[in-house]
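Human: We require from you a standard protein entry with sequence in single-letter code and fold as tokens, and nothing else.

Assistant:
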Amino acid sequence: MPQAPLPPCSVLILAGGRGQRMGGRDKGLLPWRGLPLVSYAAALIRPLSDDLIISCNRHPEEYAPYADRLVHDDSPDYPGPLAGIRAGLAVARHPHLLVLPCDAPLLDRELLERLLRASAASPNDVQMLRCGDQWEPLFSVIPVALRAQIEDAWQRGDRSPRHVFSHLGLHAVDCLAGDPRLANLNTPELLYDGR
């Protein structure tokens, strides 16, 4: 029996970090195998959404070709990924927001489809990848209806996506520990080791 169509979603690629482990360089724009890191996530998810948002705090002109819209943090001090998620939720056009980091170019469609199908089965809860015992909050599907609760947690000072989502109804989409598809190329050694 054929599977039901994937539910529509907005997609947020997080590329707004400080790039500390990259010497302050804008990680999403660093080349890997000849293309900017952000281009891999954008190409992978483009067939799944007509609402591709990139959270970036620098170089908007370079990110713009990959996105339908750009957002940025409402604070200048790089307060972390939850700031980008808040910005994405504020503009998402669909009921769910698929969140991805810009530095995981080995991610594949199978994992994204599993997240989206889990979201369709339990549409009021956050779906998050969990590899072995390790939760991966930057690989999540968030109901946009939870925006006000996420904002409340932010205003109380909570900056941890994992902690905030754990109080909002959180479901795991499991994969094996060490799954190479989730490798974050977030240091120069990982980025330039020839992979």
In short: Residues 10-191 form a domain with the Spore Coat Polysaccharide Biosynthesis Protein SpsA; Chain A fold (CATH 3.90.550.10).
